[in-house]
Amino acid sequence: MTKPTAGSTDPLSPWLPPYPESASDKPIIVQKYGGSSVADPERLKQVAQRVSDTVKQGHRVVVVVSAMGKTTDQLIALAKSVTQTPPRRELDMLISSGERISMALLAMALSELQHDAISFTGSQSGILTNDRHSGARIIEIRPVRIQDELARDRVVIVAGFQGMSYKREVTTLGRGGSDTTAVALAAALQASHCEIYSDVDGVYSADPRVVPEAKHLAEVSYREMQELADHGAKVLNAQAVEWAQRAGIVIQARKTHGSTRQTLVQADGPPERERGRATAVAAAAQVVDVATRRGPEVLRVLGEAGVQLRHLGLHDQQLAATLTLDDLPDFARTQAALRAVDPALELRDDQGMVTAVGPGLGSDPQLLARLLHELAQAGLHPGRVTTSPLRISIWLPTTEVQPATRLVHGLLC
Ligand code: ASP
Ligand code: MG
Question: Which atom of ligand 1 is least distant from the CA of 66?
Answer without folding.
Answer: 7
